Amino acid sequence: MSPFFRAVSVVLALVAFFGSADAGALVDTLDRGPKKGEKIPFALEARDQDGKLRDFRSLVGKRGLILHFYRPMVLCPVCEIQASQWSARAAEFRALGYEIVAVSNDMVDVLSQVDQRRGIDFPLLSDPDSRMIKSFGLNDDKYGRDSAWYGVALPMTFVIDPTRTVTHRFSSTDFRERPKVDDVLKLLGKRTGR
Hints:
The protein is α/β, with parallel strands linked by helices. Helix content is 35%, strand content 16%. Helix 5 (108-118) links the parallel strand 4 and strand 5. The model is unreliable at 3-24 (pLDDT under 50).
């Protein structure tokens, strides 16, 4: 992608992201993926942006894991922006006992470039064949095999406890509507008594 096209894409994504009236509400409007109280269906084994093989045990914090499913960051500037917003607050989640991880069907080298640009402070997992995305039931079916978007995830955020049980879910039918970092911090802070 040319630098000009990337810059235009970022500006348009910012306008769309911040122009959305309800962006960030703690809602769950998609009827996809594991439900609250269910175990996650996949152990999250994948390579991170450094090429290191990671699994659930190496990712989860004392109280749990915040798991984001993103569209490919190479095609979705909003996803890259959101990852950067969460990264800026990662230490606050760690203080509550939670780690953060993101999954997309980007290749490792793309995630490494995102990390270099944004300084992401949590693992970005590469799922190029959409194995994890499909096991969670989050593949976006509207894109066929001939599309550059084939195999992308429906954006969704899960909070998972150390037993691999979903404790919270956040989703929207509008990919621009993502949970606000402050709202999730407040919610998890109440759970931990902080």
